[in-house]
Structures are given as structure tokens and as C-alpha cells.
Amino acid sequence: MAMTTEEMLRLKSTFLAPYMQLATALIGKTREGGGNMFRHQLDTMATLIDYGYIDSVILKASTVHDLIEDIPDFNHNLLLTVDYDGPAVYDLVLEVTRFPQETKPEFLTRIRESGSRQAKILKVADRISNMISLGFVNNPEFIERYTEETVRYILPIAEEVDKAMLAELRSLVESRRRYVSALARDTWIP
User: Fold this and answer.
1) pLDDT tens string 39-96
2) Domain ranges of the chain
3) Contacts of 107 (CB under 8 A, 6+ apart)
């Protein structure tokens, strides 16, 4: 669906470059499926735009959503002071940050049960990016565990916030299940 003139103007006035610059701290952080965490931030932002989300806070947060979690010594003041959206972006990033004392199920349950609508939307976009990246992962146990985690924790969030994103996630779940099943039968031909 094409953007309206008003939506294009809103997006045009969103300055993402300072947030993208902060996110470059993630370039050295590799991912299981290859690439690095910096590109994952941009993939998550692209997913949000693809689904029509153009709010400046959620887009800015998507570009830095893993900074606090993955860069332990990150200077939080940089996020708070980057621009007028900084405090709201920081709060949203904190909502989708898994803290060291949290297990993964506790973290995902926290978002599902008490996360803001923006945090839930951001988490679903993040998971879409992650599920797409699973297509480059060669560890069937990891793929299976991550896929089932998506079914248990993320699909209910997507059901609540965005049916179109839910449909994509369901498709990705089925694709990853077929892949793992084919690997188990030794019938996968790349």
C-alpha cells in the first residue's frame, strides 16, 4: 500500500542518521546466521516500514533496539540526548531489552503481559527479521528451539498487535519447520 502525502512528510521529518550512527557499535557483533547486529537493526526497521509503521520513536528504537543488551558498557546518555525523541526511544529500547537476570521465557512473557503496544510491535518486527535469518543457520536444534519459542511467545503478541505480521510469522514458522523436518529425513537439497 502506497504512503499518503501526510505519511511521507512524517517519515521525511524523521532523522534516523544519529541513531544509525549509534547502532554502528553493533557492527562487530556477529549473528548465528551470519552478518552482524548492525544490519539486523536496519532489517527490523525495514520490516516496520514495510508494515506501515512510520512513527519516529518506534523507527528510531528499531535502529538501536539491541544496543543496551549487546553492548554492556554502552553509554545510555547518548541515547537519552541524541534528539527530542531520545528519552522515549530509550524507554522503548529498555522495554525490549533482556536483562541479565531474566531468562528468555521471563523476558518474552514480560513483553507479552506488560509491554506497551510499541514494544510488542517492535518485538514482532525483530522476530520477523530473526526468523528470516534462520534461513542461513545450519544448526537444526537451534532453528527448532527458536521456531518453537516463536510459536509459544511471539505469535500471541503478533495476534494482539498486527494480523499481517502474524501471517508472515506463521509462514516463517512453517517454512522453518519444513526445513528442520527435511534435514532430519536427510532430504534437504539447498
Assistant:
1) 999 999 999 999 999 999 999 999 999 999 999 899 999 999 999 999 999 999 999 9
2) 5-184
3) 98, 99
